[in-house]
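--- STAGE predict ---
source: upstream dedup step, 1 unique chain passed
mode: sequence only
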Amino acid sequence: MRFLGINAIFHDPAAALVVDGEVVAAAEEERFSRRKHGKRPVPFSAWELPELAAAWCLEQAGLRPEDLDGVAYSYDPALVVPGGPGQDERWEDLRTTYARRAPAFLAGALPGLDAAQVRFVPHHIAHAASAGLAAPYRESAVLVCDGRGEAVSHLAGHYRDGELTILASQALPHSLGLMYEDLTQHLGFLRSSDEYKVMALASYGEPRFLREMRELVYPTGDGGFRVEPIDWSAYAKALGKGETWTADHADLAASVQVRLEEVLLDLARWLHGRTGARCLTMAGGVALNCVANTRLFAEGPFEEVWVQPAAGDSGTALGGALHLARAAGDPVTPIPGADLGRSWSDEDLGAWLDVARVPYERPADLAATIADELAADRVVAWFQGRAEYGPRALGRRSLLAHPGNPRNTERLNAVKGREQFRPIAPMVLSERAAMIFGRGPIPSPYMLFVHDVRPEWRDRIPAVVHVDGTARVQTVERGRDGLLARLLEEFEARTGLPVLVNTSLNTAGRPMADDPRDALECFGSAPVDVLVLGPYVVRRGAVFAR
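--- STAGE serialize ---
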């Protein structure tokens, strides 16, 4: 059977297609529209339908809208309590009305679709399915934590043979995700978008306000928690655009980060006590907090922790489709990886370069050629295969660089136009990872955990070592990505370093590059030395010498 999943309610609009229980395609609308997180200046216009992503998913499978057996919309307006706690009074009625009319909107966006085929899947059920059904386990505990859904902010449950048992949920207004969003906004960043910046800033501070945070944010012992109103200005003044953070701001970020980790640990221990499961699967925006994920893995009761790569709201499109497939009786298959987006043939990529009128070459040994460039400390834009689903660049749409040059952290942050306190990440062959990195899980293919960098390696790969001695690692499997594995081997042969710097192929405020035009624009507008587009190599010197 054929099920399309749609997220289009808060932010990160996305679509995913599941056919006979297998994930065929998944993509965020931002990669097509070029509006990061689906956001526009007016808040309610963020509720855009992922029309382009949905159309592409169907095209990828050779389907028409009328061929679908159902469409999952990952929000159920019937669960919203009018005037309930935790709602934004300016927009809630309009949001709920929009959601109720979503079937008609979708039928208009996808001609041929019967609006009666659209089914509302509760937001946190969709999140849970994106973890518990997409993970490689027949049984797992599942923990969902985000800003909010219809009326709750959290779900704890147990998946066994595809069936979900809900064990706890937390009613609004109490929300760990909204707490973190509020802090993000107080620190001058964009809420529901820049929370990862707060996590990075926390590494520069001390949890000086932890005692106060423990009084305001605490578990209740029944699988839930409370978040009391917090006056952020009592700890650090609000930061306006362009203002510089101080030690108070870093200490506040550190205090909230540590308290978040502590509460998540308590929730995980309660859940393990109820399920006895060996594995914990996670989704929801809070599950993108890789520092908290590592603490759950290292100190929590579960043997394994698996986080869905598109854990934020975009992943509810995947979860909604999987939920309908399972309900229809299809045997659901775990996701094969995060590379679920668009790709182009070598011929198509060559045609793009011809249209752009840039000189290019097709080396006989691409991995060896690019290893030479990286060993010479050049920055490489790397565009290969199917695009990633989720916020992390995983060697499909990446900027690569030499990890041994400590200046490359500042250099890449300048290339991308982002804050200098932001870390950049390492990629490493899975079998080499334990030699260099500790504490976090290995393999770690989705860059959703931090790992301690072993002391003897910190001076050898300084560009990827954060101020706290950690790194957000991506491990590479030979069987899944042979070209990337060969590049790592060739680079090590030249430098003695089995690690490359990996950060997303984009510049500040722009979504990750997705199609060849995006890659060419990024190459043309940023100080990147080499662009690799499939089998083709474009060198900045050759382009600008013309």
